[in-house]
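pinging the channel bc i need a second pair of eyes. not urgent but kinda urgent?? the chain im working w is below, pasted from the shared doc
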Amino acid sequence: QVQLVESGGGSVQAGGSLRLSCTASGRTFSDNAMGWFRQAPGKERNFVATIGSQGGYTYYADSVKGRFSISRDNAKNTVYLQMNSLKPEDTGVYYCNGVLLGNYIPLWGSWGQGTQVTVSS
């Protein structure tokens, strides 16, 4: 069983920045690609970004390319999402999970509580 704890969300104006963190426990963190997903109000949860198990590979959804940057620290079992130039359409609850590379779908069935990001225009 994996435990995921997200943090770092908040309310910002358009153009602002936030840095999200997710700490995982209960699994061998460094064995898995990790990623971020977000769920906008009234919509499904969608893929945002992923990073390979050792950090050498990253991939982003088209909507965040050039604005978001994913990184990880395997010594701390933590994955980060640096979000710059935020837009109102980035608003939603952000979750982390393991990622099945190629399909970019969540690896594990359990989710953390997520962290809310609200971007005002």
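so The CA atoms of residues 18 and 43 lie 22 Å apart. and The chain has a mean pLDDT of 96. — does that match what u expected or am i reading it wrong
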